[in-house]
Model the fold of this input.
Amino acid sequence: MATVQDIHFREPAGRVAEALTERRDDIAEEMQDLAGEKMVLNMGPSHPSTHGVLRIVLEMDGEIITKAVPDVGYLHRGDEKIAENMTYTQFIPYTDRLDYLAPLANNVAYTLAVEKLMGIDKALPPRCQFIRVICCELARISAHLLGLGAFAMDVGALTVFMHTFTEREKIYNLIESLTGARFTTTYTRIGGLSRDLPPGWVDQCRKFIKDVIVNFDESEKLLTRNRIFVDRTRDVGILPKDVAIDYGVTGPNLRGSGVDYDLRKAHPYLVYDQLQFDIPVGTVGDCYDRYLVRMEEMRQSVRILHQCLDKLPDGPINIPDNKTVLPEKKKVLTKMEELIHHFIVVTQGVNAPPGEVYFGAENPKGELGFYINSRGGGTPHRLKIRAPSFVNLSMLPYLLPGAMMSDVVAILGSIDFVMGESDR
Amino acid sequence: MNALELANKLIARFGDLLSAPVEFRGEVTLTMQDHERIQEVCAYAKKELGFDYLVDISSVDNYGDDPRFTIVYELYGYGHRCHLRLKTSVGEEKSELPTVTTVWRTADWHEREIYDMMGVRFRGHPDLRRILMWEGYPYFPLRKDFPLAGKPSELPEVAFTRPAPLDGGPFVTLPGGKDAMAREPRVRQPDTQSVETISRLERRADIRKAHEPDNPSPHTK
Done:
């Protein structure tokens, strides 16, 4: 009769790691041989789950990833170089194309950075500030809806994608009637907005946020207790708190790891200090937590939108300084002073003082920051964009090794990045 | 505790190495004289003063000044919620300073980006490669002496720089001039001084001549 042996089966990658951590060099080499030849798999730059043009070179041992090297830059357009060569106002359209899923939030973040440099960010009229908050939160809902839909689709739940895209379409209709464009909004201006809310817009928006809550519930029903979804996301891609901070991760990814940090609360800009909302925080830091955080953030955004629409004051939308904001067209055509101001603002731009500022705003993807180094005048000497997607992607070499091949799509989906912003 | 107090603590520890704090729009900036000690200062700021989050590293090209490059570190602490800016300069001949990847891992990609865009190297960086431009690209595009329209850089089998599909492109604006007409985006030949560009333009002219019909239509005249 054959003797019965205990079978200790562990994945080869795990055995190698164990041998290496025990620092037994004699067996480490042997184990390396046992683990077999590693295979290098190229993922992207055009892979459906890379949401754009991210390329990852994966080194695989069987089905387990041992090393991941992300390769970014396929969408590099030199935005920072372009910014140095034009006036502050001329750069606003370029910010649409950073995180192209939330152009309104980018517009607001950029103009706030320039306004901080000029020292007028606290002097904005209340109506302008409220409208900007509405823009930010609409953009957040829209970006999270897309992020969730694409994430769910990547892990096999196509229905959610259809649900969320129906609602996004309504947001785009709202944005279109507000700005005249669906994607390339270019809505804000230095010291104000390009136009006021169109008549009836507030009611349309109210109707939308009443409807969208139903959609959140539906999506949540499809996902939160969905066995397949939970199995594929829970305890996958765990990002511990300290590692998240070390890698500079921001936004829902950071909060999913349990750090209670949101720029809207920590350093309130615009009128966020007058609004009531909660910051959802995760506990484990896995893909499921990141999903839950985004889901709750959308509900909080709706809460903010309700308050903003209720409190929305009347009044001007631009600061009363014609050397910063374009004067009214009617006056430009009839009055000399306004004509001169118009000419100067268009040709030379706003007159920013020399100095340097950093302004970070809580965007859907995380902290979108602008570092502006000014030597005075209408153009920045250096404008650095701190793109949240770029920083969030830099943790992939930490997050992917040890995961299975099929987990890559779940992890990428849960990080929710945009390459337009990452590559700038 | 506010940012100014934290900055003063840093000055108390490192003395003359750091200049007096400058406040502008509520932000505190410290300038460091000797860039060789950036790692030491950052490690102290993280460990003792709680700056556990490196927001960003930027680089500024002060073209024409000496030292040429300024590296800007944006520090933030989740504990005390204060922001501090640390600046240091590095000259063009050396253009190298110690890495801070040992302090914050997020510095990895930021430093690679600065190397890619400005050509400032970081000593001790684990993997200092280009990140946004492709491997083998010969220039540093964010330097002020690099033209906005770009420079031709042929790399067989990897990358090429042909004119944009529109005739004569790329369409570029002129930096900073007061004259709006001159600044308007239009066709500008990238750096016509360089020999390779001229030869390329000649080659293109030759091709165009070869394709010209014998009897040009009245529209082309």
The two ends of chain A are 69 Å apart (CA to CA).
